[in-house]
């Protein structure tokens, strides 16, 4: 993997993006429902959510490819809601790349400049700069169809930035790449965005991609923003049960919150940093916060329970331990740092710190 270090040509001023009260329906289906969002100039924001949550429709409205039923799109304070896509200072990189197969790499990159009537000498210089930025300085004369998927993605990025837009939109641009190439491209994409200083909005269904790339993440559900925050905020401090379940893995323990604000489930009592309201609730603990120990000498109390190991497997930098605990099944991710691992059939104690517990109320009977 080669990191992008070259400074780009001077870009246009990045624009602040403001979406106010956006709404869009397709027949009886609500795609976007009263969505408001501000993206400061130069920020990288990711729209993340399940299929049908409205993230792609929001991006298309911002690009000018769809008209909202209600609401406004503003760029640096200017209302562009009714401005057609080709007149907005916004470029989009699509999942399919949308390259012209009959053109060379350089001609693909030069296309938006020719549409604007830029002179040939300027076109040659800008295309060379853009291709150098995406680490394809010698590919200009090649047919675009001769390139690999990763190289074609770079060409699509070069075409999007060659015109120095004030806003860059990314519609799941890395989803067609294999995992190792996708991870390498994530690093390069982030460095490229930082070098350009361009306001960027990414649509993705890949949580790892959103968490690693974006300054802020918008978690969407049913056309609305469930939570807007940094990667740390949405991962460690989810604002709702939906966000907690959607982002990352969770162990779920259902039960009743007692008068002391702790959740009771059969033989385990779960405490959290704050006192929960009495009633039916769900406690969530991430697998990396579950400790698995062989010492059973002390009596079990709050935030720990005994069980039997039913599975141990290697998962990259961590080991996954599956423990059956009196009707509960807990998943623990243990760092592979040389510490001894339990074996299948071992009796163990699972424990966790209350600081890593989130308790959410649930409807009666859910």
UniProtKB/TrEMBL annotation:
<dbReference type="InterPro" id="IPR003593">
    <property type="entry name" value="AAA+_ATPase"/>
</dbReference>
<feature type="domain" description="ABC transporter">
    <location>
        <begin position="17"/>
        <end position="247"/>
    </location>
</feature>
<dbReference type="InterPro" id="IPR027417">
    <property type="entry name" value="P-loop_NTPase"/>
</dbReference>
<keyword id="KW-0813">Transport</keyword>
<dbReference type="GO" id="GO:0005524">
    <property type="term" value="F:ATP binding"/>
</dbReference>
<keyword id="KW-0547">Nucleotide-binding</keyword>
<keyword id="KW-0067">ATP-binding</keyword>
<dbReference type="InterPro" id="IPR003439">
    <property type="entry name" value="ABC_transporter-like_ATP-bd"/>
</dbReference>
<dbReference type="InterPro" id="IPR013611">
    <property type="entry name" value="Transp-assoc_OB_typ2"/>
</dbReference>
<dbReference type="InterPro" id="IPR008995">
    <property type="entry name" value="Mo/tungstate-bd_C_term_dom"/>
</dbReference>
<dbReference type="InterPro" id="IPR017871">
    <property type="entry name" value="ABC_transporter-like_CS"/>
</dbReference>
<protein>
    <submittedName>
        <fullName>ABC transporter ATP-binding protein</fullName>
    </submittedName>
</protein>
<dbReference type="Pfam" id="PF08402">
    <property type="entry name" value="TOBE_2"/>
</dbReference>
<dbReference type="InterPro" id="IPR050093">
    <property type="entry name" value="ABC_SmlMolc_Importer"/>
</dbReference>
<dbReference type="Pfam" id="PF00005">
    <property type="entry name" value="ABC_tran"/>
</dbReference>
């Amino acid at each position: 993997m080669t990191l992008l270090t070259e400074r780009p040509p001077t870009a246009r001023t990045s624009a602040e993006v403001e979406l106010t009260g956006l709404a869009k329906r397709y027949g009886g289906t609500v795609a976007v429902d009263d969505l408001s969002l501000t993206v400061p100039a130069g920020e990288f924001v990711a729209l993340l959510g399940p299929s049908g949550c409205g993230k792609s429709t929001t991006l298309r409205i911002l690009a000018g490819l769809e008209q909202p039923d209600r609401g406004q799109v503003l760029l640096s304070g200017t209302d562009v809601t009714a401005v057609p896509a080709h007149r907005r200072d916004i470029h989009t990189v699509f999942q399919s790349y949308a390259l012209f197969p009959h053109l060379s790499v350089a001609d693909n990159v030069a296309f938006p400049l020719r549409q604007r009537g830029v002179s040939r000498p300027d076109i040659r210089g800008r295309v060379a700069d853009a291709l150098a930025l995406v680490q394809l300085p010698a590919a200009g004369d090649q047919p675009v169809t001769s390139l690999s998927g990763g190289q074609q993605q770079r060409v699509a990025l070069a075409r999007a930035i060659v015109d120095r837009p004030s806003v860059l939109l990314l519609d799941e641009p890395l989803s067609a790449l294999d995992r190792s190439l996708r991870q390498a491209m994530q690093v390069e994409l982030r460095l490229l965005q930082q070098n350009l200083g361009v306001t960027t909005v990414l649509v993705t269904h890949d949580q790892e991609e959103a968490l690693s790339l974006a300054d802020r993440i918008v978690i969407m559900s049913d056309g609305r923003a469930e939570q807007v925050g940094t990667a740390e905020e949405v991962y460690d401090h989810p604002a709702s049960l939906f966000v907690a379940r959607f982002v990352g893995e969770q162990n779920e323990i259902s039960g009743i919150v007692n008068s002391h604000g702790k959740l009771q489930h059969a033989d385990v009592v779960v405490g959290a940093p704050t006192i929960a309201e009495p009633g039916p609730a769900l406690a969530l603990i991430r697998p990396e916060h579950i400790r698995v120990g062989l010492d059973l000498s002390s009596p079990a109390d709050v935030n720990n329970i005994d069980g039997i190991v039913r599975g141990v497997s290697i998962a990259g930098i961590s080991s996954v331990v599956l423990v059956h605990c009196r009707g509960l099944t807990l998943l623990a991710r243990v760092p592979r740092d040389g510490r001894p691992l339990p074996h299948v059939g071992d009796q163990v104690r699972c424990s966790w710190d209350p600081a890593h517990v989130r308790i959410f109320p649930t409807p009666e009977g859910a």
